Structures are given as C-alpha cells and as structure tokens.
Prior knowledge:
Number of helices: 5
Amino acid sequence: MRTEYLEYLLEVARTKSISAAAKKLFIGQTTLSAIINSVENELNVKIFQRTHRGVALTAHGERVIAIAEEMVENNRQLLNLFADTEPTRRNIPLVAYPSACSIPIPPSLVALPPIPTTNLLHPLLTASRITSPTPYVVV
C-alpha cells in the first residue's frame, strides 16, 4: 500500500465525502473511489459506509484511520528527519545542441565572464557555461 493512499483515506474521513476529498486532493472521484476499494480489499475490511449523503467510518474504519494517522505522521517525521542539515548545492547544466539551434549567439554573449551565483534564482543552485563548437542557441 502506498503512503499517499493513507493520506487519501484521512482526507475522506475528514471531509466525510469522496467527491469533496477528491477535489481537495486534485484527483478524480472515480480514481479515489477505486483507491479506497483497493485499500479495503487489501486490508480485507470495510473502512467507509457509503450513503447518499457521503461516507461514514465503520468500526474497523475508525481503527484503520487511527493507525493511518500515526503512520502518516511517522512518515512526515522520517522525511523531515534531516531537513535541518546543510542542504546540498546542485549544478544544473543548460545545454544547447548545434543541430537544434537556429539563432547565432552574439559574440558579446559568448565572451561573457563566469555566471555569478548571486544572480541565480535559488541560493543552492550554481551555473556554468560550456563553450560549444558552434555559436548558436535554441529558440
């Protein structure tokens, strides 16, 4: 079972509606319904009692939701365990292939000095320029 499925179950339990939960989760109602059925089949229990006014938790569903809340919280703690450590810098190369290029790069741009990291949009990104055998840029 996927962790996000537990989050889906929690949202359905909170909203007491599959359609309202689907809208909040940005997934289709039929998709969410199929996921709920899949989880119920996997656990071999009925989690929600479906009515014309929405859904209600069954007795087994209340136990499932209590455990799912713990599991989701533990998963968040695990994912954030090392969030306080020093983030890693990333270098993202931008490449233009001569065969895909159609506009010549002006000589003034080709001769530019190295790109200063202070001008980047994110402080953990670095940029570098690699000279190409042909002075063209992708449009």
